[in-house]
Amino acid sequence: MEIWFLVYYLAWTAAVLLLLWVSDIERFRNKILSRASLFGSLLIFSFDSYFRGNRGRDTQAYRDHYLFISENAGLMPDQGPYDFEVGYLYLSFIFGRLGFSFEWFSFFISAFSFVAICFMAYAFRVTRTKLFALVILSGFVFFSYNGLRQWLALLLFYLGVSFFYSQRKRFLVIIYWLGSVAFHLSSVVALATAVGFRAISRLDRLSTLLVYLISIPALVLIFYLSLDVLTGLLGYKVYLQRINILDYSGLGFGWLAQTLLNCLLVVVLVIKRDKFGLLEYLAIMWVFLYLLSPGDQSIMRLAVYFSFAQILVFSRVDYFRDTFSLFVSISYFGLMSLQFVAAILFNAHGAILG
């Protein structure tokens, strides 16, 4: 089964990225071909929702909740078997009442994810192919199954970030961020960090740098010391055991690979020579969080918002600017590819395919 699952996901990834690549290169030459390729990529990307199966404990919980709501017409959204956030309760309630199966509901989530990532590519001025390659190879496609509510919260949070510097569209930031909290309360951690950055960024350059050097480790330490309180408020069970969530299928290179990726991220922040903005701030938060507690599931669940920032930061790098940038880029994609293959083998268990 695992070998067929590996073949399927490698072929799926190649098809999605190939069509996106055609869409990107034909964007200004042949709009019909570009749009057709983009739509084809959306269908293939969303088609995977039919093969997610029961990968992960939470995936089964989402399926059970959806079926329970769908099959009991007299129930209200908050009368399901699980105490989810209001955003997910009403979204699943609406789709269930409209008669859609869980597979079609998952298809819609995947399609929304595709559109949201495409918009991020436009907002952050990167090619869709590059951003999707990083999102897929990073394993977020698997996280979007088992961490469905948090994945939606993450997407809405970064849609808000895309308008972060727009004075005229500040209301969109508020709407997206309220939506993020409605799908997963853990997003308040990312929101608080972003708001704090806004206050810090108004200082002069030297003061800002000093505050960065002090505030990031301080925030990480506060997260760690108040973990019991945070997880209690956000409805998490505190996992006392320390396990490496990236150590897929006992392969053992998860921690080393992620540590090297973090080192490359720091190098990227140095070679970019751009203004240090919100994305960079969030990415550095991820590095500190991972160094402090690489195997604590509770803190990693809170840190997933910052993990996504490193993808957006790296997607904005000019890979071919010089030899060193190319070397860093090849190393980064190589490490992420190894982790992706390991994630495929790990997630083969519980899948429908095979």
Automatic annotation (TrEMBL):
Record's keyword terms, sorted: Membrane, Transmembrane, Transmembrane helix
Any one Pfam family match given in the protein's UniProt record, by short name: EpsG
InterPro entries noted in UniProt: EpsG-like (IPR049458)
TM stretches of this protein: 6-25, 32-51, 104-124, 131-159, 171-197, 209-236, 248-271, 278-293, 299-317, 324-346
Membrane recorded as keyword: yes
UniProt keyword annotation of Acyltransferase present: no
UniProt protein name: EpsG family protein
Lineage per the UniProt record: Bacteria, Pseudomonadati, Pseudomonadota, Gammaproteobacteria, Pseudomonadales
